Amino acid sequence: MDFVSIRIITADVARLVAFYEKATGVPASWATEDFAELRTASATLAIASTRTVPLFAPGSARPAANQSVITEFLVADVDRVYENLAGSVEEFVKEPTTMPWGNRALLFRDPDGNLVNFFTPVTPAARAKFGRP
Predict the structure, then answer these.
(1) CB 4 within 8 A of CB 41
(2) For the chain, which has fewer Cβ within 10 Å, the N-terminal or C-terminal residue?
(3) Alpha-carbon gap, residue 126 to 118, rounded angstroms
């Protein structure tokens, strides 16, 4: 089994896609106006409209209601990313901080309120875990 993607349901696909394109530097691939994907080497962030929910199961997902999932991105320099996002992110939950497990992490909310963590491994053990010199 391979983990390949996470999907965010939103009431405003264009707004959320534009945010993630800017935040990650990854261009989106649009399938329809209701569905786009940002593909990285290891996984895909899919963003879908509320209109897609009934295709799976009506009422099974609600936009802007996440209170438990943090979407994480490994970045080369979390401090530089923080500087670049300063005018685009409405709520930084935690500015870049070195965590006890060796990652320097930046926690913020996307326009729908979903938690996002950008992190850079900084200790030897954390760098080794992610295959970073």
Answers:
(1) no
(2) N
(3) 14
Tokens 């936009």, located at residue:
63
Structural tokens at position 37: 């994907």
Q: What is the dihedral of CA 119, 121, 122, 126, to 10 degrees?
A: 140
3-state secondary structure of 18: helix
pLDDT tens digits along 38-88: 999 999 999 999 999 999 999 999 999 998 999 999 999 999 999 999 999
Outline which parts of the chain fall under CATH 3.10.180.10.
Answer: 1-54, 66-133
How far apart (Å, rounded) are the C-alpha atoms in residues 14 and 33? Answer: 8
CATH topology of domain 1-54: 2,3-Dihydroxybiphenyl 1,2-Dioxygenase; domain 1 (3.10.180)
pTM score, whole prediction? 0.93
Q: How far apart are CA 31 and CA 7, in angstroms?
A: 14
- CA dist 14 and 32 (Å) reads 11
Closest CA to 33 of 19, 20, 52: 52
